[in-house]
Amino acid sequence: MDQLKQQLKEMIVQDLNLPDVKPEDMDDKAPLFEEGLGLDSLDAVELVVLMQKRFGVQIADMDEGKEAFASIDALARFVKAQQGNTSKSIGTSVSAT
Amino acid sequence: MAPPAQSPDHSITKKRAYQNTKSSVAITGMGCISAAGTDTKSHWININKSTARCSPVPDWLFFTKLHYPVFAAPPEALSPTGRDLFESASPSLLSSTLSRTLNLAVSAVAEALNQAGIGLQYLRGKKVGIALGTTVGCTFNNEEFYEQWRRGLEPDLAPILHYLSGNLAQALHGILGTQGPSAVVTNACASGTDAIGLAKGWIASGACDLAVAGGADELSRIAYNGFAGLQLSDTEQCRPFDRHRKGLNLGEGAGLLVLEEEGQARERGITPLGWVRGYGSASDAWHPTAPHPEGRGLKCAFVQALADAGLSIQDVAMINAHGTGTKANDLAEANALSNLLPESCHVAIVSTKGMTGHTLGAAGGLEAVLTLLALRQGVTPGTHGYQSSDPQLPVNPIPQGISAPLPTRIGMSQSLAFGGGNAALVIEARP
Amino acid sequence: MRQEVAVTAMSVSTNKENEPVLASLKKTLRRADGLTTQAVVAAAQALAKAPTREPAPVEVGIFVGTAFGPLETNFRFLDTLLDDGEGQASPTLFSHSVHNMAAGYISRLLDLRGPALTMTTFTWPFLSALDTAWQFMAQKKVRRALVTAVEAKSAVLEDALRRLGASDDSVSVEEAVACVLDPVEWAPPGYPVLQDLEINNRPCAPQILLTRKGERWAPQSSQCPIGPLDHALAIIKALTHLRSKSADDILAFSIASLFGDARLTWRTKEEKP
Fold first, then answer.
1. B138 noted as active-site residue
2. Are C13 and C132 a contacting pair, CB within 8 Å?
3. Which residues, 6 or more positions from A53, have their beta carbon under 8 angstroms from its beta carbon?
4. Among the listed residues B384, B347, B360, the one whose alpha carbon sits nearest the alpha carbon of residue B240
5. 3-state SS of C85-138?
6. What whole-number distance in Å separates Cα of residue A40 and Cα of residue A35?
7. Rounded to whole angstroms, how far apart are CA atoms B295 and B334?
8. Can you tell me whether residue B423 is helix, strand or coil?
9. What is the tens place of the pLDDT at every residue in A70-96?
């Protein structure tokens, strides 16, 4: 779980372009959106794509996304739950045309 | 490219040149093409009969694994009227060398010029302004070229040259053989509305004798995937303002107006179809992609447009809303409108995107045409796709299947764009 | 004649003086591409240098001119589409590949709520933005206009240029030029006042719009026309020179090319009587 959280933190810092944030300083329970890290709706949809690409996790809609993205803890739990429900081979990146 | 038939007649231009007074900007012609029809007549019929349907992306457009339906214009983007104009204006060119967006624009301009009673010879003797809005039409879309380039190959440069030939306003000037101001407004979804506003200013100040203004855009796999990634697209036909709306459907097309100073039009023996009375444009200054929740920029643009027209909201019979069918847009727009419309005011609010899709850069032009069409008929069809009211929205549009009579001949068309731009027009039809 | 307007501030994004501005905006520009970053820096610095008149936010218009816009960001988006497949392409990159994103950023970061128009043309994007801004001021739609021309580096275009036989290798720049247009009465004496602007376009072979072969302007400067931003840089340079001379001077700036010609006439604002 800790390794997953670390991966998530690194992905968020790198791929959502947060130059001032260090993964090690990120609080697992802190909100990612609005307060806390201050991510917005554009980051949210980017995160959906990143989750699919990196972890093979599908987020059905932004209502599901809202819950899953509440914090690093919530995100890690969501990934675990999704990966537990489906085999690892499903949901990996759609083959490029 | 065909040269002008005669040198421009500057006498009229000189008379009005350098004036900064409010001349009456008449609309003497209009033209459009989209999924809802190939001209204004077919648009009016189809919108009233609610017969336009979105469909899965047709193979002849591009291949996709995604399931968001679109409103595709006919495969042949150049209408018969457009082809007539093209062949007489630029006989040495092949329409197949033009982008789809440009072909759509030529179709619309041909209809508009015909309606305005303007032939090529007349056109080439005047200072003609061309102001067009577009989003896809200014981008480099050739995936095949790029895919080969990034592999280190040296693909044929034809797509690059095609891209460089594709500035819509310059290309249209080239096709028509005309001279005069040229502008391509790339304000995302408000482009067409801003382009008409810009051209209105040209006519009012005498910068040109007549203007062609509006917007054109084609469907593209790049934009299609972009909107999908932003989670703004619906997997079903869009439902503007509806309680169950889930997003937009992309569309394509062109909508253009011919604008002239009213006195000049009457000198030609032409009675205007209507007038562009007012224009306003303002920014949310809020978010890269989402509108301000209260539509603050829209409110500003709306008020400016009315002030520009010297009219009040009491004069307005209908509003062609942006109404894309996304949660955020329709909420922001409804919030703004509830602030702008007094309780006593019964303005018919409609969105036509349930019949045309969201045509991006073309939307402002297409919707200005559709607004004028309704005003001329004195009645507006309801909002296709809207069937049940959303309790979160403080105002509701005219529902699908209902036609609302219009007590005045004045209406507004408004657009909200990515990046927070907002634009509004006040349009009046001649009774 | 359109009512005259004055240029009360100018900025080039890559000037060393802008480095602190860039540093201070780093966080807010975290998602911005090079094009938007340059445009914001130039626009912010120009506005900071403009006379303090405090027009209301809604009275300030933003007019951006570009030839190629966020072309490279479009290609970065296409990279994600080609590499990761449909449904997994980056929405952030797509939204930043729309031409008016820079204008949206300027509007947001500087809290400017007037019209924000982005004009796209291969010929003279700065002139297109300037002309539109001037019209909006003359028609009292705005009291102040922030005019910005911006381009980004593009490896694809550089390659195309090389293959078309252009001699210079460093042919695309990532840079922006911005200026503030104000009512003449707001400008200090000696500042440039725009009197006339005429643009005539002409059809030409498409590659000319990339190579800009034959483009030249007067008065001559060390600036050689290479790309669609250079006319803007040359005009800014000429205006800076105009300001340093006597109040009687008129600047007639003319551009000739295979894709048309343009003329701008400037005077300097008179001293107070």
1. no
2. no
3. A93, C84, C88
4. B384
5. CCCCCCHHHHHHCCCCHHHHHHHHHCCCCCCEEEEECCCCHHHHHHHHHHHHHH
6. 10
7. 8
8. strand
9. 999 999 999 999 888 765 444 444 433
Mean pLDDT in consecutive groups of 10 residues from the start of chain C, 273 residues: 94 91 88 96 96 95 98 96 94 97 97 98 98 98 98 94 76 90 96 97 94 89 75 94 77 95 95 73
Report strand pairing: B379-381 vs B348-350.
unpaired
Q: How far apart are CA B210 and CA B32, in angstroms?
A: 18
Q: Which of B54, B189, B238, B300 is catalytic?
A: B189
Report how far residue C171's alpha carbon sits from residue C177's, in angstroms, rounded to the nearest whole number: 17
Residue B361 in tokens: 């850069």
pTM of the model: 0.95
Helix H segments across A1-97?
A: 2-15, 41-55, 62-68, 72-85
CA distance C97 to C33: 9
Domains and CATH numbers, chain A: 2-85 (1.10.1200.10)
What's the CA gap between B414 and B298, in Å, rounded? 8
Is the Cβ pair A46, C91 closer than 8 Å? yes
* CB-based contacts of C198, cutoff 8 Å, min separation 6: C262, C263, C264
CB distance from A94 to chain C under 8 Å?
yes
Structure tokens at B169: 């306003």
One-letter amino acid at B95 equals: S
* R_g (Cα) of chain B, nearest Å: 20
CA B146 – CA B290 distance, rounded (Å) = 30
CA distances from B288 to B295, C92, C93, C106 (A): 14, 9, 12, 11
Structural domains of chain B ordered from first start: 11-267 (3.40.47.10), 274-424 (3.40.47.10)
- Predicted confidence at residue C255, as pLDDT, reads 95
Determine, for residues C87 and B135 on separate chains, whether the beta-carbon distance falls below 8 Å: no
Q: What is d(CA C15, CA C22) in angstroms, rounded to the nearest whole number?
A: 11
Closest CA to A11 of A42, A43, A59, A36: A43
Q: Interior CA angle at C75 toward C73 and C79, to 5°?
A: 115
Strand partners, C200: C261
CB contact under 8 A, C90 and A96: no
pLDDT, averaged per 10 consecutive residues of chain B (431 residues), comes to 38 36 84 98 94 93 97 97 96 90 98 97 97 96 96 96 96 97 98 98 96 98 97 97 98 98 94 98 94 97 98 97 97 97 92 98 98 98 97 97 97 96 98 86
Three-state DSSP class for residue B214? strand
What 3-state DSSP class applies to B270? coil
- Which of B325, B346, B364, B354 shows the shortest CA–CA distance to B48? B354
C-beta of residue C260 within 8 angstroms of C-beta of residue C199:
yes
Pairwise CA distance, residues B66 & B56, whole Å: 9
CB distance C88 to A52 below 8 Å: yes
- Phi, psi (rounded to 5 degrees) for A59: -110, 120
Decide: B250 and B85 in contact? Cβ < 8 Å: no
Inter-CA distances, B17 with B189, B212, B261, B281, C266, Å:
32, 18, 12, 25, 20
Query: Of chain B residues 237-296, which have a CB less than 8 A from chain A?
Result: 287-290
Which run of H or E residues covers position B115? helix B100-115
Query: B143 CB near a chain C CB, below 8 Å?
Result: yes
CATH number of C5-268: 3.40.47.10
Residue B419 and residue C160: Cβ atoms within 8 Å? no
